[in-house]
Design brief:
single chain; eight-stranded mixed sheet; 9 helices; about 270 residues; about 15% strand; Rossmann fold; alpha/beta
Length: about 270
C-alpha cells in the first residue's frame, strides 16, 4: 500500500489555541506542524513534550503523542521518552521561563548528554502566563514589570551561548514572524543527530508591546553554519540576539547507551529481584 503524504493540517489537533491575539506562538505552532509534514513520519511515530507556560500548550494543539509535564521538567521527560523509544521523533516545546529558570539545570544536562531530540524554545523575555514579570532572558534594565519597577539588575541568560558551552550539537535561532524560515530550521534540527536547540524570538505583545519592533530588527546571519566551537561562539557574540539561521552543527554522535530501548521488561525486573 502506498504511503499517504501527510500535510501540516494532519499534525494539528481539533483543540483551538487560546493564546493572546498577536502572540508569536501561533506562528511557531504552524512552523512545527509544517516541519513535521516535511519530515513525513506517521503521527504515532512523533512525540511532543512540554513543561508549563504559554508555549508549553503546544502538545495539546498537535495530533501526535503529547505529554504536558510539570514546570521545568520537559527536557528530562523527553530524554526518558527518547531513550525508552529511540524509534520516535521527539520534540520539546517550551519557553524562556520554563526552560531557563526552574528548568535551567535540566537544560544544561540535556545539552551535554546529547540525546537525539529537538528543543524549540520560544523566547519572549517575559513571563506571559503569570502576567508579565521579568524572565531569565529579560534585559536587566527593563522597568515595565510591577514586580521589578527599577529593573532586575541581573544579567540576562544567553540561551544559545549557554547551549554551545554545554555541548548542544545543533544550535539555531529563528523568528516567529518568519514561519517558513523557522519551519526549515526545525526540520533541519530534527534531522541532525543529537540534541538540537532552536531559539525562537516570539513576541509577547500583550506584556511587551515594544516587541512589535522585532520584525524590523531581525536579520539573516551573514555566515553559514560552522562545526568549530570557537567560531560559533564568536558569531553569537558578534551578531547578537536578532540574527537568524543555523549557527553550529557539531560532529559528536548522539547519546546511545547500550541496550537503550531494547531490553525486555522481564530482564530489567531480574536486576531488581530480591
Amino acid at each position: 500500500m502506498e504511503a499517504v503524504q501527510l500535510t501540516a493540517k494532519d499534525y494539528k489537533s481539533a483543540v483551538k489555541p487560546i493564546w493572546c491575539p498577536g502572540c508569536g506562538d501561533y506562528s511557531v505552532l504552524a512552523a512545527i506542524t509544517n516541519a513535521l509534514a516535511e519530515h513525513g513520519r506517521p503521527l504515532h511515530d512523533v512525540a511532543v513534550i512540554s513543561g508549563i507556560g504559554c508555549s508549553s500548550r503546544i502538545p495539546a494543539y498537535t495530533s501526535v503523542y503529547g505529554f504536558h509535564g510539570v514546570h521545568g521538567r520537559s527536557l528530562a521527560l523527553a530524554s526518558g521518552v527518547k531513550l525508552a523509544r529511540p524509534d520516535l521523533t521527539v520534540l520539546v516545546a517550551g519557553g524562556d521561563g520554563d526552560g531557563l529558570s526552574i528548568g535551567g539545570n535540566h537544560f544544561l544536562h540535556a545539552c551535554r548528554r546529547n540525546v537525539d531530540m529537538t528543543y524549540v524554545i520560544m523566547d519572549n523575555q517575559v513571563y506571559g502566563m503569570t502576567k508579565g514579570q521579568a524572565s531569565p532572558t529579560t534585559d536587566a534594565d527593563w522597568t515595565q514589570s510591577k514586580l521589578t519597577p527599577e529593573g532586575t539588575g541581573v544579567n540576562p541568560v544567553q540561551p544559545l551561548t549557554l547551549a554551545l558551552a554545554a555541548g548542544a550539537q545543533f544550535i539555531a535561532r529563528g523568528f516567529s514572524g518568519n514561519p517558513r524560515g523557522l519551519a526549515k530550521l526545525i526540520y533541519e534540527g530534527i534531522n541532525h543527530p543529537g540534541f538540537s536547540i532552536i531559539q525562537v524570538m516570539s513576541p509577547c505583545i500583550t506584556y511587551r508591546p515594544e516587541q512589535r519592533d522585532w520584525k524590523s530588527m531581525m536579520k539573516d546571519s551573514a555566515y553559514e553554519a560552522t562545526d568549530n566551537l570557537a567560531e560559533a561562539n564568536r558569531r553569537l557574540l558578534e551578531e547578537g540576539d536578532f540574527s537568524t539561521g543555523v549557527i553550529y552543527k557539531g560532529p559528536k554522535p548522539a547519546f546511545n547507551p547500550i541496550g537503550s530501548g531494547n531490553t525486555p521488561i522481564a530482564e530489567i525486573e531480574k536486576e531488581f529481584a530480591l
